[in-house]
Amino acid sequence: MVEHVSPGASALPAVFRRVLRRRCPQCERGPLFRSYARLHPSCSECGLVYRREQGAQTGSMYLTAAVNQVFAALVIGCIWIFFDWSVVRSLVVGVPLVALFSVLFLPLSMALWVGVEYATDVGNREDWTQLR
Ligand SMILES: [Zn+2]
To answer: What is the dihedral of CA 121, 124, 126, 130, to 10 degrees?
Structure first.
């Protein structure tokens, strides 16, 4: 079911709910991804361009890096606090955990960044945004 929302700050929850469901932030009907972590160039339903310029997903890379560093710090902290493991054993367990988290978080980060860009454009009242 497509929910209609008005532009402005009240649109933010709807935009982020849509991208977290991996749907177009503008119309909610089109899928964001064509495969696991590959964005469609644009929405198949409303035509919203997801990657409007070269480097449009740079923000998602920074978001992924920052969240992964926090997760890695939590893993290191948990291993150090709760387990009396050697450095080698800690690395053998911790590195794959962080790598797996990184792979799993990437599409979420990309979707969130599409939402951030779209919400910014809605907030700036760009005339091409038509939140439906
Ligand atoms: Zn759309």
So the answer is: 70
CA of residue 76 to ligand 1 center, whole Å: 41
How many angstroms does the Cα of residue 63 sit away from the middle of ligand 1? 24
Cα-to-centroid distance, 131 and ligand 1 (Å): 9
Model confidence over 36-45: pLDDT tens digits? 989 999 999 9
In this predicted structure, what is the pLDDT of residue 64?
93
Classify residue 34 as exposed, middle or buried by CB count within 10 Å of its CB (0-12, 13-18, 19+).
exposed
61 Cα to the center of ligand 1, angstroms: 23
Q: What is the pTM of this model?
A: 0.82
Q: Ligand 1 mean position to 46 CA, how many Å? A: 4
| Per-residue pLDDT, 4 | 53
Has residue 4 been placed in a domain?
Answer: no
Q: Note whether residue 1 is domain-resident.
A: no
CA of 80 relative to ligand 1 center, distance in Å: 46
Specify if 73 maps to a domain. Answer: yes
Is 130 within a domain? no
